[in-house]
# Entry
Amino acid sequence: MTPAGTIGLEIELMAPRGSSRQALAEAIAVCCGGSASRIFYPQSEPSQILGTPILENLTLGFEVRDAQQRVVAQCVDDLTLQADCDRAHAPQPGWYRIVGDDIRFMQIIGRLSDANLPLAEVLQPVAKTLGLTLQQGPEGMVKLADELGPPIAIAALLPGERERPCELITAPLTYDQLPQVEAYLRVARQLGFYAPVEGATHLHFDAAPLCSAPVIRNLVHLFWAYGPTLKWLLGSNPHCRRLGLWPPELLGLVQDADWDQLPWERACDRLKTVSLTKYCDFNLKNIVYAPRHKHTFEVRILPVHLDLPPIVAAIDLMADLLGRAIAPEPVPPQEPLPAGIEGLEALLQALPLSEALHQLAADADGSAASHGPGD
# Structure
């Protein structure tokens, strides 16, 4: 079935040495007769600082607009992409990041700061607004601090080839607009971009059709049972970071006796009692918390593809699964089925009319047959 609503794609790429995500953004801009501009993009990472578990980052990215000034794509950093980068490599001129330990401060700093300013000046508008004086540190570092404690934010040069990781994020697209992505990927291939060691592709489906308690129950039952099979069938990257299962209590929650009768607002309240995270195989958090511009169901298990057809095949399969979740017939609960033929056969029985699943199953059978036993 054709997906309801729009689809957003996030494809993790790596620039060849000597290049950067800026090169891809500018080339895509030329391709669509538009322009590319420098932006800040928020990222979180685990911290080694005692008492500060998470560091918030504003990293340099690039926004691509077409000739009508519509945003069509972004090329941004992804801090999970590490293995392809030389951590000892010296910073490139003009590349820096802003780091802090409070997400609210960092959101404000992102709104007040201009990514086109040089490192020495980028925090000056924030300092002026707060009535503070910037402090200069070694190697061009700039600190925004007051007298009460640790720095509010630090701007510092970006070493370790961090200009090379490139998450290509598309604007929300209708199904008929997906061929536009092939043009972006063709440009990436021509520039020598490749799939990173830890790379993945994420699909964002419009969450609006999923916002009911019975649909969420069906969705949880489907992806709980068939998640391992889907990862096997779609070739999920074993080196990909920030994947994982839902918390076990989620399954019990959607099986409460009164679950199906709950209005959506109350269902969300109950779902918020579970430790949902975006860093899992299938992200429900964006459905429940509905962040601005990203009220989506996110599928995070795809590997990186440098051409469009396998991405469309995965979109078609996920659309069929979401269609089954939306259907009025309840999906019975099952234990997770094993990855491989056994799980695939069960999935075929659950989605007998899915052309995408049958084609992917045939491809999987052909691949197994071509290798033969003992290969």
Summary: The radius of gyration is 22 Å.
